[in-house]
Amino acid sequence: MVSKRKRGMERRDFLRVGTVAGLSLAEIMRLRETCAAEGGSDDVNCIFIFIIGGMPHQDMWDLKPAAPAEIRGDFTPISTSVPGVQISDVLPKTAGVTDRLAILRSLTHSKSVHQDGYHAMMTGKEPTASLDRSNKNNNQHPSIGSLVAKLGKQGAMPPYISVPNFIDSGGPSFLGPSHGPFVIDADPAAPEFEVRDITLPVGVDPERSLRRQTALREINQLERASDRVDRQVNALDSFYQKAFNMMTSRRAKEAFNISVEQTSTRESYGMTSIGQCCLLGRRLVEAGCRFVSIENGHWDTHRKNTKSLRELLCPAFDQAIPALLNDLSNRGMLEKTLVVISTEFGRTPRINPLLGRDHWPNAFSIVMAGAGLNVGQTIGATDKQAASVVDRPISPADVSATILKVLGIDHKQVLHTPLGRPVPVVDGGKPISELFV
């Protein structure tokens, strides 16, 4: 027998939106508000760009020109906008905005398998041997985005959005699906790009939808008169109203509508996946999303590393990142937006027989910008072959603690699983102090 509560949910099918474990956006919003802990600051949002495959640090951020040819590779260090700081000649545009970057050259962890590295860098916690590598939503610890969704204040926009797909280990773990990402499962660089499920269904115009809303309220009044239901069910309409408001809100819909951007703006980012994802990320944080995760793939350069970087990967990256930083700055948003460029690990110091580089978690680089951080600097150092950290090791937990601190969330607090097991938000990590000087 179908319960009255279930029948009530079915009557609201026209409001089904979102893509988190089959929940509607209204249900996600209800669960988030029900489960929300103390909120953090809404002052700073985050665009988290994850480079899938492993950025070759010694070919981009941490060159070793004095090393033997089989170590240093084919790239040349060039000067940047920061005196004394050099990066690769494959990033000439990025060199012009290095004064807005903090280059962290001493990341290190112990996981050399992609899925394990994703988990380490997406959550701040290295996984155990039981990690399910066949499942993207395999979190043993909540992702950073899910922690922001859980601990940050709620707004009209989903607090955690992932584009152009769900990123491995980007899930909520024990926090539950209501704190997972709202997934935009489409590439904004595609000509036919459209975010599904944020508009009213075909044939349901706003006037008709309002009539349905009125009918639902009348039906629910009868249900409340005949049923004994708890406060959460009594309040369900408010969460459906939030979903309805998002679908009918001009600002919310426009945030996802990248086509309204001027052609010159879109072209400045580059008509590539990373370029248009970065532009969409800017639009989403501008509309109030707290954490936007962006995946950019195909960086696993086991073969033809030089050709892949110079011809395929770095040109789009080198156009998108400066465009994002300049756009945020021109709009007065950079001081309130944290930009993180992360990856699961680096690449081996020695070039292999296939002219590629393999996996190397011992030492690698990531980049941070914006949010009032102390930028225009490098932090940490590796040895003469970019093989080992020799100064200021930085762990994934340190990165997580830093991001949460910047977003106004207490990284020292402890959460509890549904069974009551205490789980530190960040296990042993500390914010990177040099960024806050």
Number of helices: 15
Structural class label:
alpha/beta
CATH architecture verdict of the largest domain: 3-Layer(aba) Sandwich
The gross shape turns out to be globular
For the largest sheet, list the strands in their spatial order. Answer: 6-5-7-1-8-11-4-12
Number of strands: 16
The poorly predicted ranges are: 1-19, 34-40, 226-239
Topology (SSEs and partners):
Blueprint: H1 4-10, H2 25-35, E1 45-51, H3 57-60, H4 69-72, E2 77-79, E3 86-88, H5 92-95, E4 101-107, H6 114-123, H7 144-151, E5 160-163, E6 182-183, H8 206-226, H9 231-234, H10 236-248, H11 250-256, H12 263-269, H13 273-287, E7 291-296, H14 305-330, E8 337-343, E9 346-347, E10 359-360, E11 364-370, E12 377-379, E13 381-382, E14 389-391, H15 396-406, E15 414-416, E16 422-424
Parallel strand pairs: 1-7, 1-8, 4-12, 5-6, 5-7
Antiparallel strand pairs: 2-3, 4-11, 8-11, 9-10, 13-14, 15-16
Description of the molecule:
The protein is α/β, with parallel strands linked by helices and 437 residues long. The protein has two domains: 1-35 and 200-256, no CATH class; 43-195 and 264-436, 3-Layer(aba) Sandwich (Alkaline Phosphatase, subunit A), CATH 3.40.720.10. Helix content is 35%, strand content 15%. The protein contains 15 helices and 16 strands. It has helices at residues 4-10, 25-35, 57-60, 69-72, 92-95, 114-123, 144-151, 206-226, 231-234, 236-248, 250-256, 263-269, 273-287, 305-330, 396-406; strands at 45-51, 77-79, 86-88, 101-107, 160-163, 182-183, 291-296, 337-343, 346-347, 359-360, 364-370, 377-379, 381-382, 389-391, 414-416, 422-424. The strands form five sheets. An eight-stranded mixed beta sheet has the order 6-5-7-1-8-11-4-12, with helices on both faces. β15 (414-416) and β16 (422-424) form a beta hairpin. α6 runs parallel beside α15. It is globular, with a radius of gyration of 23 Å. The N and C termini lie far apart (63 Å). Residues 1-19, 34-40 and 226-239 have low confidence and may be disordered.
